[in-house]
Amino acid sequence: MTEVGEYAQLDLDRTWRRGYPEAVYCAGKTADQVAGIAAAVRHRTDIVTLFTRAGPTHAEAILVELPRAHHDPVAGLLAWPPDPPVPAGGPVVVLAAGTSDLPVAREAMLTARYLGRDTDLIVDVGVAGLHRVLSRLEALRRARVVVVAAGMDGALPSVVAGLVAAPVVAVPTSVGYGAAFEGLAALLAMLNACAPGVAVVNIDNGYGAGHLAAQIAAP
Amino acid sequence: MTEVGEYAQLDLDRTWRRGYPEAVYCAGKTADQVAGIAAAVRHRTDIVTLFTRAGPTHAEAILVELPRAHHDPVAGLLAWPPDPPVPAGGPVVVLAAGTSDLPVAREAMLTARYLGRDTDLIVDVGVAGLHRVLSRLEALRRARVVVVAAGMDGALPSVVAGLVAAPVVAVPTSVGYGAAFEGLAALLAMLNACAPGVAVVNIDNGYGAGHLAAQIAAP
Amino acid sequence: MTEVGEYAQLDLDRTWRRGYPEAVYCAGKTADQVAGIAAAVRHRTDIVTLFTRAGPTHAEAILVELPRAHHDPVAGLLAWPPDPPVPAGGPVVVLAAGTSDLPVAREAMLTARYLGRDTDLIVDVGVAGLHRVLSRLEALRRARVVVVAAGMDGALPSVVAGLVAAPVVAVPTSVGYGAAFEGLAALLAMLNACAPGVAVVNIDNGYGAGHLAAQIAAP
Amino acid sequence: MTEVGEYAQLDLDRTWRRGYPEAVYCAGKTADQVAGIAAAVRHRTDIVTLFTRAGPTHAEAILVELPRAHHDPVAGLLAWPPDPPVPAGGPVVVLAAGTSDLPVAREAMLTARYLGRDTDLIVDVGVAGLHRVLSRLEALRRARVVVVAAGMDGALPSVVAGLVAAPVVAVPTSVGYGAAFEGLAALLAMLNACAPGVAVVNIDNGYGAGHLAAQIAAP
Amino acid sequence: MTEVGEYAQLDLDRTWRRGYPEAVYCAGKTADQVAGIAAAVRHRTDIVTLFTRAGPTHAEAILVELPRAHHDPVAGLLAWPPDPPVPAGGPVVVLAAGTSDLPVAREAMLTARYLGRDTDLIVDVGVAGLHRVLSRLEALRRARVVVVAAGMDGALPSVVAGLVAAPVVAVPTSVGYGAAFEGLAALLAMLNACAPGVAVVNIDNGYGAGHLAAQIAAP
Amino acid sequence: MTEVGEYAQLDLDRTWRRGYPEAVYCAGKTADQVAGIAAAVRHRTDIVTLFTRAGPTHAEAILVELPRAHHDPVAGLLAWPPDPPVPAGGPVVVLAAGTSDLPVAREAMLTARYLGRDTDLIVDVGVAGLHRVLSRLEALRRARVVVVAAGMDGALPSVVAGLVAAPVVAVPTSVGYGAAFEGLAALLAMLNACAPGVAVVNIDNGYGAGHLAAQIAAP
Amino acid sequence: MTEVGEYAQLDLDRTWRRGYPEAVYCAGKTADQVAGIAAAVRHRTDIVTLFTRAGPTHAEAILVELPRAHHDPVAGLLAWPPDPPVPAGGPVVVLAAGTSDLPVAREAMLTARYLGRDTDLIVDVGVAGLHRVLSRLEALRRARVVVVAAGMDGALPSVVAGLVAAPVVAVPTSVGYGAAFEGLAALLAMLNACAPGVAVVNIDNGYGAGHLAAQIAAP
Amino acid sequence: MTEVGEYAQLDLDRTWRRGYPEAVYCAGKTADQVAGIAAAVRHRTDIVTLFTRAGPTHAEAILVELPRAHHDPVAGLLAWPPDPPVPAGGPVVVLAAGTSDLPVAREAMLTARYLGRDTDLIVDVGVAGLHRVLSRLEALRRARVVVVAAGMDGALPSVVAGLVAAPVVAVPTSVGYGAAFEGLAALLAMLNACAPGVAVVNIDNGYGAGHLAAQIAAP
Fold first, then answer.
1. Does the pLDDT of residue F11 top 60, yes or no?
2. Which residues of D touch C (CB under 8 A)?
3. 8 Å CB contact of B99 and G29
4. Angle, to 10 degrees, between the axis of helix B184-191 and the axis of helix A184-191?
5. Is the interface score ipTM higher than 0.90?
6. Which of B35, B54, B168, B34 is nearest to B110 (CA)?
7. Rounded to 5, what percent of chain A is helix, strand, coil?
């Protein structure tokens, strides 16, 4: 265990025990704290470290310490070392119901990729235009697990779970307004999916969805 | 206006003013109160009276006063006089996502029929098996308005509204358990339907859905 | 289907299939994404495209691509091409309970107009001053459908539905404070309207209300 | 202060200090506990004691001890001594929006009467039929305070408060179903009444409404 | 009725009908709209107009039109004409549980004063230090009505209502954090006050509390 | 660890490790399961076992196995062996705001007593009659910890915590109706107590309150 | 597709398409409806049919039609044909935090078993006694997927997910009272699990948890 | 009692009566009000005054009046006089589940220290890595009371309460997102802790947690 300042204990060895990367959730930390952690992992290139929910200030601070880190501003994610592992296990397909679900969907896809899976991303396939999702059926049925990011009515996971035999990881997004209640409507809909095989994670939790998908699709 | 006992004022003339039947909501009334109202409308065969949310005790009390009334126990509805008007206006198609949504769906269908519309009822077409609803597309597209009763994830109205040009009346049902929260999940999903053209009514409000549909499909 | 960048699929042909315009919800998109979509529809003047929930930055970006687009800043709406279709179908009357409900009411009215309906807008007719709404009774009774935008206690749709035979589309607004809970109080009141014939849409969803009204009043 | 068994302290002297009766809320007590209290007040005929929320079992137990007590089964209320005081102060008018609101409305009326006010009760005047309440305008405007019991959309207090100069005590009832959420919808509507002058009490709290009204209309 | 622009109808004559001032809720209006209304009432010095929830920008715009208007920045309230009526009716005593409740308490006090009541304001008398409120008992018992503004646990109205015979108007404030849920905790506590005689208004609704108190204490 | 059937592992040795009794929560178990556990502890008279939330059927089944067990039907609690330990540590004083809070208050008192504390119980001291609680001040100030059981507005813990230097364990009860929301109002009020020193436990959790109090008052 | 009466469409062929059994949710159906479905599958012994949430009346009706069906009364589940398939894929380990979680845990275990997985069940390993779960670490680490059923604080999935590399399916149960809010507390805790790799399903949804686990552990 | 301006009454003598410092909650006050209070206590060095929830502006204003005050920017706390009392009573150990819980944890620790307790702070010991908390077992078991600050799933207090005999003060934090609902998930989990001995305070209420802990650990 590595103490970082007075505020964190990095548990890099856990990486070996559980077989998965260390993740640093930036939203609740100052830029200085995040930079301190970035400095602490600089020489650990044998282990993947993901910085999630990194705003522009966080990203800047991290890139000072790790200039070659991979940075995806849409997903708010940085990865160190920059190159993902060679893919193993089954393919992970990520769907974004609408354009506004893209940040969450990309966070899920990149997480699964840096955990060593082969990934694919399909955007703007909401249930209001069923032909969009039906036209991707072949791609969906090749997946070992499908991640679906959707806000508003959260109806897409039900539809997808009825079409494929693989498990579906449903990640509600806070996209919408009014009675969407910041993602609550989509969350409840997904928990009540009328097709079995839907695994729900927290609202906007692209990282968690990608991590879970990578575990499900592990070799 | 007709005073009934000390507890109600029947407004049969409103029937003419608004052009729609009087409805008596039984759930909040005693069997005696309902019987009193039934007696008061016995000779008004020029106007339709609907008794909604009538449990077995209510039904029994009403049938003593109006032995020839039409009684649908599944919908908990009685109609007086028993024969619906000759249909006019556009056709109303009612969908029930699952078997458990049938009471609400039948209440909607019968209400629309007694308000003078031609009606059709299609059961067990949930989104977990898309082929079921897609196989009814032709029937759906003939409707002037579609009523959709669904519980759990409440996803069916979004899908239907994306398939037809007619307005969709969505009635969430309290079918489900746990995070369905007695219909709240379905209600929120419907309010956030990602296709426009969805009109939402109260949970389990088959009467309201049928009434609204009849108004939309009026000649 | 037209791919726009990596983030959207425009479905202009759906316009023909369902008979209604394409709508672009701007709130969840960047100005760049919105501008990209505006550029993609520039030459499609045979189809109406509505840009909804457009803030000043969105509007500016759209007007660069479509300088002649119609822009209503109160409603946060832009329409392309700028001229609405020749009205057909029945008249749509839109009520705003108070001055603060105006943005939502205008969004509803403009949507219905660009979907091809004849529209009328009446402002500041809340139930605290019944004479205001009663003095407009004649106008209300001419409508094929009435849209009512109200926040706070959301009482106006109940009152209006008791006065007219036409269906009422109720759109709760987030106007109010405290126990208004961002429109929740009005939403619940409307779902429990004691007069039948009230169709509820999402909080602040003027676009949805106008779209639904246009469908109900279709020729 | 009078100790009753090990479970209550009667505070009859408070009657003099605050000038109002002792009330015994039966719902949370056993029949034995209620009977014990009834026995303790048998000889205190100088002070009014109200037993509220008394179910049939409570009522039976009380009437054994106080056979001449006034019992209103609809309101679930018993009063001892049976005759209310000679009225003083201003008149209290109680409205029940619908038949199902009658138990709460009667509880309010009887409480105000036993606190020494002149009372009047008007039933079935919901806002879906405005002419009903408008036809009672004269009676309403004579009141020193108006109590309004309403469930569902809870819209009546807003309308009444816009019509009279007197304060309105609004008591939401649990009448309704689905998104009425056991009176929550009506409660929120009343708290957001768009006319000033509305005082809200707890759901189904007819006793509290009547007590408050009696205080407002005190001489 | 006076039309102001396209956005409001001033109902100054209602002042005479109900006997109370016109109030303009500024929070939902632009500075321009508010200024337009201010201009419209400039010459109506026979009627009190209150501008509530006026931020600095609103106040500035109003004072351009009505330079002599009374402005209370803590309460966010402006009054025109500046001098309140000569007091009539019973005294209104306003309590603020803590310093942070002061804006709401002042809004209540000023409203009651401009509606023609004699008013008094007592600050920082929360239940955590009972001696503070007990030391004011004499002042409290002289009131015809007591207004209590409290956030957090909302316990003060219960305590006060147990001490005085006058009705208590309880106004929950959004003071607090966490499980205070923006005033919800205080609101629920007040609705469940264990002493009768508590009239609840909306969270932070100082205007409504003052108006109601003025009606209760009317001559 | 003792396996009981296939459904429970009794952890009697934990008694020594943590120094506190084993508790068996009966509400979620069948009478047979509870009887099996009772049989398993029959010969362990060196350790206290508490059976909580025991309805009549549970109690009967337990008393067959442990005929001499102490049974308090009001609290729904049985204790084995029947005699509590000799008191040690500081005194625990339990308050019940009203008669209806008695079951929860007794559960707390008995739990503390069987954990080895000296206990006292004071009933019916709600804040609506402040003199009641003020008259017990001396007893309160002798306590090492005060437990307060209150429903409805949950105001009593704030008042008590302002009067004593000892910590207050606040246990909200589900006493009340309507906007009490089964104890939620009291829970929120207690979490927002305006005096520091209030420790909150779950609604109706008399056992937890008594256990916590016994730990706080441990020697 | 097989029509059963007017109320259901059995989709046995979907079994082949998705590779999983048909499930009949009994709670929303009458005994007659369930019996009709049982009769319809009597001769389909090539496909597994599960009857879930079957109360005693449902079970009796099913066993008349399918006397040899496997019936687990604790889980409320019946399976036809009675013998599960020969296990394939990875092992599924099911944990029940407490005795009261057993019905949900057994439903999950049996569902996974009838979907063809090898299963194991471990009971009474809540986090209040960490040694219990730590003593089962070896068994947990052999699982391809772990199902965790827990009510109250829902803390067990977080702990388990921190100990194993396999994904965890967390099923909140309605075990608890008060602020458990029928499983809501556990549901929220699981959605916010501080270890990644937790897949959440609906409250009490043992069937869904077992189905999802079987898909994850598929060969 | 000391009047400060028109907005506060300082109750320094209460310090003696209850034996604890005066606390000034800055969040709801202006910098000027806070400075006024700071000036009022400048010469009272015999009594500790804590300024809590002090943002940078508040801190600056206070430090002008009390330049030597102790200021902890992470906790948002200032203390006057700067030196804490000599420790007495039992040791207080404060745990922060994660780095983001540090502000709340430090506020708790400092409050307990300025109330005269010996304190210790342990950071980043969430349940996802059980070995972290297990490695601190010895320190935990020496505590007279343990304070646990945790957000997200709020699982740490359950685990800790199962490991120690001392009472646990659980303070939920608003750390997390989505279904954490600003600390609600952690709050509910803590109220439902499956180990007894957990005392819950308001979300983010580090001050309250530290105060309560100091009272529990009082000599």
1. no
2. 97-98, 126-130, 134, 152-155, 158-159, 161-163, 176, 178-181, 184-186, 188-195
3. yes
4. 130
5. yes
6. B54
7. 40, 20, 40
